């Protein structure tokens, strides 16, 4: 009987690995598209979850900081096969893009990044992609005047005082404003209670570890001066403070790796452009950054560091989600945070993306073409990336 149970568990884990890896190779288009792929595969085809459970899981992951689509994938794996299922679902979905970006970073080291025309093209791709993200997020997250004002405040503050602590302060302030403005506006969901394959004690342990690392890593970084600790701290903190989708990690990572001298703006934006060409979560951008900084070992360390908060948070909150989602005050605070995210992203769009990419009228014209291809003609992101790289090379030859 025990052997049959073990065999069934192994088959479940193998199936989970197979399905998540296929999604990791084919899920282009960003977090919203990923959620669509997950729904089609896990809910409609395999019926591992019902519609309501999936909607609740998505709502939880939107509420938490971190990469929402990756957290949904982890959550599905946990609910299907426990903790090991969550780990396997994450590896399958993430590994293809991690390996691709590590390889890209290793190949890039032999080139003169600053003068390559195709690199300039990838930087213009970043302009188009982030502009598209801003338009979509602004429409969804700042529908009324109050939230537009919160976004404007976040934009002004993060643009004028560019430090890592500024963003944390802006997010906390926005949460407080949202709590005051929308605590009566948000209405709780009435739905049935659910049981999760994680104990509350284990969940509390995950949350303690999340906050413990968030506060202890900077202290350890200062007292040891070890490069690996500094690298882990930078990426862990970035992964812990991202609300509103993967694109928001851009300003956090830029302020961790460029001012410190770990890499140039050109190398940073080239990697961001290349990340648009691979499937899977945008957070795998960390694999490229870590590799540029410290080889493939740095790439793997940065990947673990930036995704670890997502793991700890989804494992730490699943058993408590029923209580959280009934609380309108928490929803009100989240509405404020989401509005601030729009302002933070616009700030990052201006600097470093716009200031280091749009250097002439022809740059602006080409970026407008790429934006139109993405938004109006709705071409796949990889087509935009290839067009940007080829167009950048051509513009360099003509100039």
From TrEMBL:
This protein's name = Chromate transporter
Record carries keyword Signal: no
A GO MF term: chromate transmembrane transporter activity
Tell me the protein family, please. Belongs to the chromate ion transporter (CHR) (TC 2.A.51) family.
One GO cellular component term of this record is: plasma membrane
- Kindly state which keywords UniProt assigns to this record, in alphabetical order: Cell membrane, Membrane, Transmembrane, Transmembrane helix
Which NCBIfam families does the entry link to?
2A51
Q: What is the originating organism of this protein?
A: Mesobacillus persicus
Subcellular location per the Swiss-Prot or TrEMBL entry: Cell membrane
Task: Please spell out the taxonomic lineage of the organism that makes this protein.
Answer: Bacteria, Bacillati, Bacillota, Bacilli, Bacillales
């Amino acid at each position: 009987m025990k052997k049959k149970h073990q065999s069934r568990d192994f088959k479940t884990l193998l199936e989970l690995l197979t399905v998540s890896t296929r999604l990791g190779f084919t899920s282009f288009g960003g977090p919203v598209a990923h959620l669509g792929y997950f729904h089609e595969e896990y809910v409609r085809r395999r019926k591992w979850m019902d519609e309501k459970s999936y909607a609740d899981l998505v709502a939880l992951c939107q509420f938490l900081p971190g990469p929402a689509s990756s957290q949904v994938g982890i959550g599905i794996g946990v609910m299907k096969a426990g903790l090991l299922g969550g780990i396997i679902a994450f590896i399958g979905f993430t590994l293809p893009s991690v390996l691709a970006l590590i390889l890209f970073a290793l190949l890039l080291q032999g080139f003169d990044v600053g003068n390559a025309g195709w690199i300039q093209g990838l930087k213009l791709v970043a302009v188009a992609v982030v502009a598209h993200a801003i338009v979509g997020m602004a429409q969804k997250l700042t529908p009324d005047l109050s939230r537009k004002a919160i976004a404007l405040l976040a934009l002004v503050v993060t643009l004028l005082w560019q430090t890592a602590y500024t963003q944390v302060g802006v997010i906390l302030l926005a949460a407080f404003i949202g709590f005051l403005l929308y605590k009566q506006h948000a209405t709780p969901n009435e739905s049935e209670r659910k049981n999760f394959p994680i104990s509350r004690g284990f969940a509390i342990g995950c949350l303690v570890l999340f906050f413990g690392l968030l506060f202890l890593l900077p202290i350890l970084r200062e007292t040891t001066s070890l490069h690996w600790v500094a690298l882990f701290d930078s990426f862990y903190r970035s992964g812990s403070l991202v609300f509103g989708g993967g694109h928001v990690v851009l300003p956090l990572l830029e302020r961790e790796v460029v001012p410190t001298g770990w890499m140039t703006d050109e190398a940073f934006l080239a990697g961001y452009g290349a990340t648009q060409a691979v499937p899977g979560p945008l957070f795998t951008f960390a694999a490229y950054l870590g590799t540029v900084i410290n080889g493939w070992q740095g790439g793997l360390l940065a990947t673990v560091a930036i995704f670890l908060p997502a793991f700890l948070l989804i494992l730490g909150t699943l058993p408590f989600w029923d209580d959280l989602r009934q609380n309108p005050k928490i929803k009100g605070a989240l509405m404020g945070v989401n509005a601030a995210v729009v302002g933070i992203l616009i700030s990052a769009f201006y600097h470093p993306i716009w200031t280091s990419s749009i250097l002439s009228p022809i740059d602006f014209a080409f970026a407008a073409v790429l934006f139109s291809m993405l938004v109006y003609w709705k071409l796949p992101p990889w087509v935009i990336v290839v067009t940007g790289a080829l167009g950048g090379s051509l513009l360099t030859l003509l100039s």
